[in-house]
User: Which sequence fits this backbone?
């Protein structure tokens, strides 16, 4: 009967659920995009220096230590990878921007992406690179020019390179763009780095070997300054840095909390006002024999309907905003079933929490005041 009040309440729940879906979605996208390199690496086990906090803040270690892993029974092959942020100069505007450079050995490619593997022979020349076409447009019209058949020459760290091909890697919060080069080209970009230094190494095992046994053997055989991790542990290592070691993950988490609190306040105001305005009716129901439990059920039923009516449009709006965000940032955003279920549970909890606060007024309904 009070359409304006109902609309305001639903809009409040829509806003709260949408804010939670967006903040948690951005947080999950941060975690996924931050570990893109590790997800695309060859290997069953991975080696990093124990002082490394994440790939972009890694401490290089000698490639000879990775080679030593081949002496451990069960190890089939090793794959070195170098990573570093390099200064890219836009060929069209002359502006500079940082780009993530990944150095691989063309004979033992550490990346397992099909489009990377197919174009590795072109990197053997030393002055060629593969450009990630999902990179930000600020790097220039590289993709468009290359697809037209034009020669694209770029300057990175004052060294000249030519684009040999395009790959689809994906942007992240750590890097606006990516390139893949040979190990020799990488050393040209970073001449001050220690010779033979790598940032992470992939280790593959012979078929049928126990992952836990080989991992333990590597831990015992290799120097103590190296950390041996499984693929899942490596992904967690990278994600933990961005989730707990930086302020970004905290900010997104706080945004979701704020959305929850805002929703509680809005729904509480609506339910409290509704109970207050209908207090005589509730008192009448108590007078004719309805229990407090029944009356509480009426309020909680209202809270449930508000949560459902607000969550559905919030979910649909989030799908639209996910697409817009992905288009604008080149960072993949997907609405997972787990996240949708979590936010629905939070929305229910938000509305029921408001109901718990609002029913305190209901206990004041005195049948004697009606007669």
Assistant:
């Amino acid at each position: 009967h009070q359409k304006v009040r109902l609309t305001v309440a639903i809009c409040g729940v829509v806003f709260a659920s949408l804010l939670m879906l967006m903040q948690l979605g951005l947080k999950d996208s941060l975690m996924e995009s931050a570990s893109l390199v590790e997800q695309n690496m060859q290997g069953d086990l991975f080696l990093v220096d124990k002082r490394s906090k994440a790939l972009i803040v890694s401490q290089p270690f000698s490639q000879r230590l990775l080679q030593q892993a081949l002496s451990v029974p069960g190890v089939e092959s090793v794959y070195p990878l170098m990573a570093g942020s390099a200064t890219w100069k836009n060929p069209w505007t002359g502006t500079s921007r940082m780009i993530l450079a990944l150095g691989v050995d063309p004979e033992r490619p550490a990346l397992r992406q099909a489009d990377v593997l197919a174009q590795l022979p072109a990197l053997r020349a030393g002055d060629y690179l593969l450009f990630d076409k999902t990179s930000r447009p600020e790097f220039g019209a590289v993709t468009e020019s290359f697809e037209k058949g034009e020669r694209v020459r770029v300057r990175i760290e004052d060294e000249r390179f030519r684009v040999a091909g395009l790959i689809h890697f994906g942007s992240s919060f750590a890097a606006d763009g990516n390139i893949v080069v040979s190990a020799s080209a990488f050393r040209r970009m970073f001449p001050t780095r220690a010779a033979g230094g790598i940032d992470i190494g992939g280790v593959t095992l012979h078929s049928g070997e126990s992952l836990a046994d080989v991992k333990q053997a590597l831990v015992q055989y290799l120097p103590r300054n190296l950390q041996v991790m499984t693929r899942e542990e490596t992904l967690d290592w990278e994600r933990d840095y961005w989730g707990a070691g930086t302020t970004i993950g905290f900010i997104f988490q706080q945004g979701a909390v704020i959305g929850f609190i805002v929703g509680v306040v809005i729904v509480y105001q609506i339910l409290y006002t509704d109970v207050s305005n209908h207090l005589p009716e509730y008192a009448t129901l108590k007078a004719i024999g309805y229990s407090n439990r029944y009356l509480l059920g009426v309020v909680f039923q209202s809270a449930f309907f508000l949560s459902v009516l607000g969550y559905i449009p919030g979910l649909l709006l989030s799908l639209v905003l996910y697409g817009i965000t992905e288009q604008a940032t080149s960072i993949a955003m997907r609405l997972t079933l787990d996240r949708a279920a979590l936010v629905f549970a939070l929305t229910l909890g938000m509305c029921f929490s408001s109901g718990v606060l609002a029913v305190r007024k209901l206990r004041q309904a005195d049948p004697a005041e009606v007669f």
